[in-house]
Write a structure and sequence with these properties.
Elements: H1 12-56, H2 61-76, H3 84-113
Helix pairs in contact: 2-3
Length: about 110
């Protein structure tokens, strides 16, 4: 922050304007500092997830997370109708159709590595 240059014979109005400019700059600096402090945990979490993905070599980690949540939801969730084997069969069919894109992606990534 650079201080404004004031002439030696500055009037009262010029001094007031300079003081207001200094206060405005101080408020800008405070806002920058506070926003940086508020965003620090978010940046730390983003860095950790990036390091985790890079460390394990996991590509498409958000897609894997969605697939895991979907799988858990289908396996542990209760259907609206709790009727015998047909409910289980429909649940497995829904699970299969939901996971087909993920399975295709996994198959493509393994074929590229070989």
């Amino acid at each position: 922050m650079s201080l404004p240059e004031l002439p030696r014979n500055s009037s009262r109005a010029e001094m007031r304007k300079a003081l207001i400019r200094l206060r405005m700059e101080m408020h800008r600096q405070e806002i920058r500092h506070e926003s940086a402090q508020l965003l620090q945990p978010l940046k730390r979490v983003r860095g950790m997830t990036q390091n985790l993905q890079d460390g394990f070599g996991i590509k498409h980690a958000p897609l894997w997370g969605v697939a895991a949540v979907t799988l858990l939801g289908f396996l542990t969730g209760k259907g609206a109708k709790s009727g015998g084997g047909l409910g289980t069969l429909t649940r497995l069919a829904r699970l299969g159709t939901t996971l087909v894109p993920l399975i295709k992606l996994f198959a493509q990534s393994t074929s590229r590595k070989d």
